[in-house]
Amino acid sequence: MNLLKFNDIAPNFSLPDHDGENIHLSDYLGQRVLIYFYPKAMTPGCTVQACGLRDNMDKLKKAGVEVLGISTDKPEKLLQFAEKELINFTLLSDANHEVSQKFGVWGKKIFMGKNYDGIHRTSFLIDKRGRIEKVFNNFNTTNHHSIILSYLQQQ
Q1: Around Cβ 7, how many Cβ atoms within 10 Å?
Q2: Is 46 labeled as catalytic in the residue annotation?
Q3: Alpha-carbon distance 149 to 116, whole Å?
Q4: What is the H or E stretch that residue 91 is in?
């Protein structure tokens, strides 16, 4: 894995959202964007993480931050997840993990003694110029939103 770092240019991408519409990162130039990569929709940890962001969306918007969640799930599953959990931000499907690789979050993982390739739970705050402002990779699913909000309040 070659994780992007502070001041790197965020690679542009186009991915389908949970409604099947293509979303381009370049559409967000001039805005701050939190891109958070998560392993799998509708699993306990990913649900807690998404709901933490959902419940704090007003604070994130007030700080001028848009949120994009990216997993390798198909758009249909993302739609089910968004509807079930009332997700109020955009979920994107990186089914071929190309974007995950570009951001350096795709790699070897171990779970219950099994080795496999997957997404490492990581978030990137991208500034208005399209550069990485902050990488968040030291959190758990329950405090993810708190760590991001704390960072934003310090700015």
Answers
A1: 10
A2: yes
A3: 32
A4: strand 90-93
Domain boundaries, the chain: 21-154
For 20, residues 6+ apart whose C-beta sits below 8 A from its C-beta are 75
Overall fold of domain 21-154:
Glutaredoxin (3.40.30)
Is residue 92 a contact partner of residue 16, using CB atoms and an 8 Å limit?
yes
Using alpha carbons, select from 125, 17, 9, 21 the residue that is nearest to residue 66: 125
Closest to 146 measured CA to CA, from 37, 43, 39, 56 = 56
pLDDT digits (tens, 9 = 90+) for 64-118: 999 999 999 999 999 999 999 999 999 999 999 999 999 999 999 887 888 989 9
Which of 10, 34, 46, 126 is an active site residue? Answer: 46
